[in-house]
Design goal:
This is Helix-turn-helix transcriptional regulator. The chain is mainly α. Helices cover 68% and strands 0% of the residues.
Length: 421
């Protein structure tokens, strides 16, 4: 089967923080709007059908030969593509939920049952990995959350819950090594978060998309999403930990792109944000916590990519020290980073010592993504197999990865699907 054509409404949701898109809407330049959608994979035939015009008329708009002038057509386009009315100078559309009237007005608090479920899933995920929890989260989303989206009495709370659980499903798919599926969840979570009126939740989804872009090697896209999240946070309540997370994602993207001075400045902004006096609280009901250990872990990756190996070692050690009492998966990833930095310094004895410690402290971690990182370590160690301690470590690593592969075989072989997320 071929790839599904992109959903124009989802693409519009991803463009709502794009300055070119917002500017085109503000000018009511629908030709530019159509070109932006076409460049992102929406065919002209599909665009014309959606907005109920001929392809010839669409080409005229896209080429600048003519412009949309009639109010009824602007409304038609807004409703077909789910462009919020305010961007085109229109009244709020019927499909737009009522959102808080100002950035300082908080969205309604989440239901206690939703928060309890998020907390339970999140705790189990951190300790053992998300692969075996994915189906449970999707089932909860389908059976307990999705039906509430059509219940007007539940209002914005349902959209926020749907966004939060959809984002969580994305992270669990990512932990299962299914990044295409994770991307689909994150794409779906973004418009749900926007429609809930919860700006920190929207910015948190942007941070998740930035992370996933980094994993696929797309530094430019990672930078885009980090900065889009920061733009959202500039208009909403300031959650210091979330601002720090977004700056850290920006720093990682800049480091991956080789922009060293800018990456270090972003990292400094992340540090400043995390340690600044709290204006509206240090956390948020839906977004994952981002603390000093999280920042140390991200800092180690930034500094590693910038070639500052001593600083990267210190940051990785700090992340490990701060995680020794919990969050097994984060601790495991920090140990992987530590081993990798030792290898970059060609300190093989230190790398072997840290590698053995890595294997002996993560036996219960059931994460396909973690197994992938072990495989990357194996490739990094292989050129040093002539050195006996490295060769012995590779034997231990192969044995460990074999056991993990058996335990995770059902996850690794069967792509997770389904759900209404």
């Amino acid at each position: 089967m071929g790839a599904q054509p992109p959903n124009p409404q989802e693409i519009v949701a991803g463009l709502l923080d794009d300055e070119r898109f917002r500017s085109a809407c503000g000018r009511r330049d629908m030709g530019t709007v159509f070109r932006l959608l076409n460049h992102r994979g929406v065919s002209t035939r599909r665009l014309a059908a959606l907005v109920e015009i001929t392809q010839g008329r669409l080409y005229d708009y896209m080429s600048g030969k003519s412009r949309v002038e009639k109010l009824a057509l602007f409304e038609q386009i807004a409703d077909a593509l789910h462009i919020p009315g305010r961007l085109l100078g229109l009244a709020r559309r019927s499909w737009e939920p009522q959102v808080p009237s100002s950035a300082d007005e908080a969205p309604p608090p989440p239901d206690a049952d939703d928060l309890d479920a998020v907390g339970a899933f999140r705790d189990a995920d951190r300790q053992a990995g998300g692969g075996r929890l994915y189906q449970a989260v999707v089932r909860h989303l389908s059976e307990n959350v999705a039906r509430r989206l059509v219940d007007s009495a539940d209002g914005l709370k349902a959209f926020a819950a749907a966004a939060a659980f959809t984002e969580m499903a994305g992270w669990m798919a990512h932990d299962s090594g299914l990044d295409d599926l994770a991307e689909r969840h994150f794409v779906r979570a973004l418009p749900l978060a926007r429609m809930s009126g919860d700006m920190p939740l929207t910015a948190g989804v942007a941070a998740s998309r930035s992370h996933l872009s980094l994993q696929s090697g797309d530094a430019a896209q990672a930078m885009h999403w980090a900065r889009a999240g920061l733009g959202v946070m500039s208009r909403g309540p300031r959650i210091a930990s979330l601002v720090a997370r977004l700056h850290a994602m920006e720093a990682r993207a800049l480091a991956a792109a080789g922009e060293a001075p800018e990456a270090e400045r972003s990292l400094a902004r992340a540090q400043a944000a995390l340690h600044a006096p709290q204006e509206t609280g240090s956390g948020h009901s839906w977004t994952s916590p981002f603390d000093a250990a999280s920042l140390a872990s991200e800092s180690a990756l930034v500094l590693r990519d910038l070639g500052k190996h001593e600083d990267a070692l210190n940051a990785a050690r700090q992340a490990i020290d701060l995680r020794l009492d919990g969050r097994a998966r984060s601790l495991g990833f920090s140990r992987v980073t530590l081993v990798g930095v030792h290898l970059r310094r060609t300190d093989l004895d230190a790398a072997v010592h840290a590698g053995v410690e890595l294997l002996t402290t993560t036996t219960a971690l059931g994460s396909v993504r973690f197994v992938g990182q072990l495989a990357e370590l194996r490739r990094a160690f292989s050129p040093h197999c002539a050195y006996a301690p490295a060769r012995e470590f590779l034997r231990l690593l192969d044995n460990d990865m074999g056991k993990r592969s058996v335990l995770l075989a059902d996850i690794m072989r069967s792509p997770c699907t389904g759900g209404t997320s």
